[in-house]
């Protein structure tokens, strides 16, 4: 049906009216016809109005799970789904007191990211961050020495790193934006401290934008009656993402367990036949390792270095006097030539002052040891050959975790830990080789072989 494009009220009223009109035009041809009638000011207002262009998952939510006003808006989204842009626009709306995201201006806002670098480079100064998404007339001033953003109307946003929960003791806020909460090292401690500080204004609240992981805090927030939950897929924002990204990345992981989490924004529960659970790994986490009596670097070489080939698993671990094993580092990487992955393993060996490299030779045979010798013949390389299935070889190592005899040192080794929790009777859910896990199994088995059943190690 043809539309009327000459009605003065449409062009002279607020941008809210423009938004309403556009959303009534369900045909693209109708939308284009109307846009052609607008002059410069109307187009400028339209282009700056986030809600006119927003995806459904970026639109404000009115109610939580219990049907009342929410205190936590949890946005679970895939990579590139527009989570950061939503966070920045939500904070900007609160800072300016702009409906429909808020009815009153917030005066003190907390910005919390995984690290100080993430807050500054993603939430504040990133392409979808607060500074770049604000029109010049509303752009806040960032004072790096004080770690805060200040708007001309007096609203202040304070930057915090999730690495230090105690930073949140003392300050108080009207609102908070928590970005990538599922990546935080100790999300419960940081989130708990934040709740004590959300005590200003008539309706303190927080927005959590994150790619999900099945951690306890995410599950708790999903079930909280005061939470509004939004799901966002990477596909929703496809128009703003590189086509090569969809061809190379989305095409590879679509439908896999990792893809459901990283693309579809789903909370993917652990496998029922898995050898490890997230809870087991979280219990094993420590800040640092004690003096170690022996350190090794486990290496699971790939069959080739071509595009799409398996990753070279490179994992270091050590054992203390009390026979507790400490997993120290995951330096695994893909598409490396034999010389490159050997150099990487040797560099880790030297950095940790390790005692030996434990290298699987099923794929490369004598070539594996030869590559290491060509780079540095003084490095002791112990060649190991797998004679049993991966699941069978991994079971004794998983038992050590269950017994509390393995620790993970420092920040989460997420790629390794994801493989551990996704490894079951039929391998990984996406069908790829558990390269990082294989390297871990070889390293831990080498350190504990006298006290546990595991792969046989042959010294060549």
Automatic annotation (TrEMBL):
Keywords from the named record: ATP-binding, Nucleotide-binding, Viral release from host cell
Keyword match Cell division: no
Domain Terminase large subunit gp17-like C-terminal: 297-445
One Pfam short name: Terminase_6C
Keyword ATP-binding: yes
InterPro entries the UniProt entry points to: P-loop_NTPase, Terminase_6C
Gene Ontology MF term list: ATP binding
Protein name, UniProt field: ATP-binding protein
Organism of derivation: Pseudolabrys taiwanensis
